[in-house]
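Hi P.,

Sorry for the delay on this. The queue was packed all week, but I finally got your sequence through. Input first:
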Amino acid sequence: MEVFRSPRNPVIEPKDVKPSRDDFEVIGVFNPGVIRFRDEVVLLLRVAERPINTNQDVILTGLYDVTKAGIVIKEFSRNDQENDFSDPRLIIRPTETYLTSISHLRLARSTDGVNFEIEDTPAIVPSNDVESFGIEDPRISFIDGIYYISYVAASALGVATCLASTKDFSSFTRHGVIFCPDNKDVVLFPERINGKYYALHRPVSHLFKKQEIWIAESPDLTCWGNHRFCVGPRTGCWDDTKIGAGAVPFKTEAGWLEVYHGADRDNRYCLGAVLTDTTQPWKVLARTEHPIFEPQADYEIEGFFGNVVFSCGLLAEDGRLKIYYGVADTSIGYAEMALQDVLQDLNLG
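Then the structure:
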């Protein structure tokens, strides 16, 4: 698969983003949703922050406190044997787990799709008990004249998916939880199919250790049912431990094309593609055997959580896939590939 990476990669880095408060630092900007709005490419960025820390004996993180209606700082001692810091993303204790950063969503705009103007203040911030650890990984679907944003809400209650909407990317309406814990990687199909809305989602079975892509339908985008299994990991392959929907599906002559992510036993994240039926989107028609995009550049291999390429959004334009993706849970990259190459990899070209 021939992939073009922008020579400007990473196109957005933590240093490019202003912290939301003076005592915080931005440690990651990644996994953006993307849409073309008017004459601009609009990204909705996941911005991960943490309190500035001058004491090497502790780890500090931010939490949204409902009672105080704002972010509070929590401290964890490095000398406490009950604190497990082995995963840089987590603080694991015997009966509870926290994140080492707290995320919000931030807007960025570009006329050329590569050089972005990033807003100084957040667009959507944690605001309730299901978002106390932050909000993450937005996907943007344009449906019936409205831009719908599905995003991950993390808290001690679990990992849920919430929905917001906007018509102008200036003001946002929040619609609450649409998929309960533990469920994430929710992407909304950009049009109704036979009068119904559809979404790909990723429920987690802790008993059977499964993380697979399912599909659900809805009459109104808030009540979801008729859940069906869609795609699962493949033993011994690049996506053999867990998979999840990535970008919003888009329609081709052959069916709905979904670019998804998968991880192997070494937590190496790559992108693949799956094709589903146009009118029965739960029916899988084809799937790429090998990754269509994998971490190879230095900035994709090294970072906060290395060996990761992870996409929440792409633009399918002019016969090309224009992919905006998180690199190593640190920055944002931009890459292109020919749609025809992906279809050939699906044995459809």
